[in-house]
């Protein structure tokens, strides 16, 4: 990987190990060996939300329909427990479905709002295959060497969607070193 300097292309070297086996994060996440090291997930720019709300709405409506069918079953032999129980269950399921879909919408909105901030930190970043660290060659907009998990945490924290890190993601349990962001403290 090279960048353009004042006198032409300049090779990017890792400031940690001095290695030249360096690639932009976007290339490293999709490149050779990425699947084995799970780099796509470890270097993710943001949460992958696509159609969750629609799927959850469809699932909820199926459950509401089943509850209403249960209520309808009680009308023929006159079983009031089936009728009122089915209607109450349908109402509760409908309200629950709306709450889940609303939460999905908020998460998607947070992802859209944070995407420019995530791109600002993610786009200039490079990954060293030798020491498995992430860095910005010019030290801007952030400085230092980070593990892929620390890098993901930095990007997601600054973008405002760190609360969407999936359960079991190692980025949840790491801290980003103080002073990583140039000229300002980390967002709390």
Report a brief summary of the structure.
With 188 residues, the chain is mainly alpha-helical. It has helices at residues 25-30, 39-42, 52-73, 80-122, 148-159, and strands spanning 2-5, 8-11, 22-24, 126-128, 133-135.
- Helix percent reads 40-55%
Largest sheet: 3 strands, antiparallel
Order of helices and strands: EEEHHHHEEH
- Gap from first CA to last CA: 34 Å
Q: Strands of the biggest beta sheet: in what spatial order?
A: 3-4-5
Could you describe the 3D structure shown?
The chain is mainly alpha-helical. It has five helices and five strands; from the N terminus they run βββααααββα. It has a three-stranded antiparallel sheet with strand order 3-4-5. It has a two-stranded antiparallel ribbon with strand order 1-2. Strand 1 and strand 2 form a beta hairpin. The longest helix is centred in the middle third of the chain and has 43 residues, at about 80-120. The chain starts with a strand and ends in a 29-residue tail after the last helix. About 25% of the residues are buried. Mean pLDDT is about 80; it is low at about 5-10.
Quick tags:
single chain, 188 residues, mainly alpha, three-stranded antiparallel β-sheet, two-stranded antiparallel sheet, 5 strands, 46% helix, elongated
